[in-house]
Amino acid sequence: MIILAFDIAGRTGIAYGSAGGSPRATAVDLGKGRSEAVRFAKMIETTAFMLDRYKPDLVVYEAPIGGPRTSHFLVGIASCFTGQARLMGYDPKACSIASIRKHFLGKNLTTRDFPGWTKAKVRTEIKRQVIARCHLLGWPVRDDDEGDAVSLWDYAGATFGRAQSKPTGGLFHD
């Protein structure tokens, strides 16, 4: 099963590959500082390109969160993504960040896990842990956007693809 995972953000991380294998990742800058219309168009264009190029069996994305403080921009680009995917015959699955983190890091880390830390410092630490886990598994992500996309891809493989990714090397390999 080929999975295509989008970590929806102003700089969107994208991971793809066969469930249970090793993912490839990239990130696409939607054009910080440009109008929302330009950025929405870039998301639609990117979605169409990736779906056409990789023809995945499963398409997933990280659902926007935040309750009443949810970023309207993130909801907008998520809508562009899901709408374009639907037009191309896909049924994209939304995945919660809590479930992704619990699967990938063993716990849904939040600000409660780092008392006295600022939100920015907590965010940086969680992203550092995601990147470290990717590297531990032998997946060379370049930044937190790719790392978040890979963690989503891995979660989707385990949840929908029924395939657990395996670290490289043998059981007792250093």
Describe the structure.
The chain is of the alpha/beta class and 174 residues long. The protein has one domain (2-159): 2-Layer Sandwich (Nucleotidyltransferase, domain 5), CATH 3.30.420.10. The chain is 45% helix and 16% strand. The chain has helices spanning 36-54, 72-87, 97-105, 119-136, 144-159; strands at 2-7, 11-18, 24-29, 58-62, 93-95. A 5-stranded mixed β-sheet has the order 3-2-1-4-5, sandwiched between helices. Strand 2 and strand 3 (24-29) form a beta hairpin. The relative contact order is 0.21. Residues 168-174 have low confidence and may be disordered.
CATH class type: Alpha Beta
| Overall pLDDT | 90
> What percentage of amino acids are in beta strands?
15-25%
Number of helices: 5
**Topology pattern, helix = H, strand = E:** EEEHEHEHHH
What is the CATH T-level topology? Nucleotidyltransferase, domain 5
The oligomeric status of these chains comes to single chain
CATH architecture: 2-Layer Sandwich
**Shape summary:** globular
> For the largest beta sheet, what order do the strands appear in spatially?
3-2-1-4-5
Cα-to-Cα separation, first versus last residue: 29 Å
Largest sheet: 5 strands, mixed
Work out the radius of gyration. 16 Å
Percent range for helical residues?
40-55%
Total E-strand runs: 5
Task: Give the uncertain stretches in residue-range form.
Answer: 168-174
How many domains, in number, for the residues?
A: 1
Secondary-structure-based class equals alpha/beta
CATH H-tier superfamily: Ribonuclease H-like superfamily/Ribonuclease H
